[in-house]
Design brief:
11 helices; 339 residues; 10 strands; 5-stranded parallel beta sheet; 5-stranded mixed beta barrel
């Protein structure tokens, strides 16, 4: 096949593609669509504005909108956009472009609205009233079975296993879930409960704020609340605080800290009354108190010896017998004179 034939086929392909896009565009332009999305970015162009929006599933799209409408939009707020699709004029904007001609405010960000809805459901269901295990029963236990609820490709698995290597006797059973699916996470929690693990850990690495929306759901909160097995969460980083963290028996900032908490609990020796550490501390405190008392006594004696009146205090005072003897002599002398 020579270059002429290749060029002819390329032209035919372009013509066919153009006709298809025209047919699709004409049909779509006659039908209105409503899309609810959160505004993430507004780009001011010469003739029109382009806005980047995000759906409740975390996927992003780019809309076209007029200048006067774009000026009324706020970042991180959700709107219900009404418009139609048209054939994209540029390939980088996609074959089809959604052009919004009106919108209605819905509320704040998707994450905020999800948290508000979840919090309302959790409060109504009294899920925050769950009794929380203090993990005192884990002290000094030689063996512990951990049900790890997370994605099989999550980096959190390696972080947790690295910590568990510090302590023998920890067995890990992985319950694979999809971390973006509420149903999958709930199923994983229930499966871990049925396996009779000693403790359940729900972990995942960091990510976008929308990635943690599933852990704000009422369904996940209900599953954690219903678990008779203590649950530790280690979700994302410090800023990623979810409803699941509030309801879990123990919540840590990261998967590594969640694993370390369990290792620390298992590593402690069960004690009754005083343990060896407290006894040593108390004994040391007692000895220090005695030494302090002895030092104070020495300092007091040293200060007394160095005081200006110390020499006078050391001089011997006349005894009472001398005074009595003198008094008797004077009385006798007076008696003989008067006689």
């Amino acid at each position: 096949m020579d270059r002429t034939e290749i060029s002819r086929l390329a032209d035919a392909y372009e013509m066919t593609l153009k006709e298809l896009r025209s047919i699709v565009g004409n049909r779509l332009s006659k039908q209105e669509f409503c899309i609810q999305a959160e505004v993430k970015h507004i780009l001011n162009a010469k003739y029109t504005n382009f806005i980047t929006v995000q759906g409740d599933d975390g996927l992003e799209m780019q809309f076209k909108i007029q200048h006067d409408l774009a000026s009324q939009l706020e970042i991180n707020h959700t709107y219900l956009f009404t418009g139609y699709f048209e054939v994209g004029s540029r390939a980088r904007f996609g074959a089809l472009q959604f052009k919004a001609h009106s919108f209605e405010p819905v509320g704040g960000s998707f994450v905020t609205m999800q948290q508000q809805a979840a919090t309302k459901g959790i409060i109504e269901g009294e899920l925050f009233n769950k009794y929380k295990d203090d993990f005192s029963g884990f002290f000094g236990q030689p063996y512990c079975k951990v049900g790890l609820v997370t994605s099989p490709v999550s980096k959190a698995i390696a972080d947790v296993e690295a910590v568990f290597k510090k302590r023998s006797g920890i067995e890990v059973e992985l319950f694979q879930v999809k971390l973006n699916s509420v149903e999958s996470i709930v199923s994983g929690i229930y499966a871990a409960c049925e396996s009779l693990c000693d403790v359940i850990m729900i972990v995942r690495g960091g990510g976008k704020e929308t990635d943690f929306g599933v852990f704000n759901s009422v369904e996940v909160a209900t599953a954690i609340n219903a678990s008779a097995i203590p649950i530790i969460t280690g979700l994302g980083h410090t800023a990623n605080l979810t409803s699941a963290d509030h309801i879990a028996d123990r919540s840590e900032n990261t998967p590594t800290k969640a694993a370390q908490f369990l290792v620390d609990r298992l590593g402690q020796v069960r004690s009754y009354g005083y343990d060896s550490t407290s006894i040593k501390e108390e004994a040391g405190s007692y000895q220090y108190g005695n030494k302090l008392k002895e030092r104070n006594d020495v300092e007091y004696q040293y200060t007394a010896d160095k005081s200006p009146d110390s020499n006078r205090r050391k001089e011997k005072k006349p005894s009472m017998a001398i005074f009595i003897t003198i008094a008797v002599i004077l009385l006798c002398f007076y008696y003989f004179i008067m006689k």
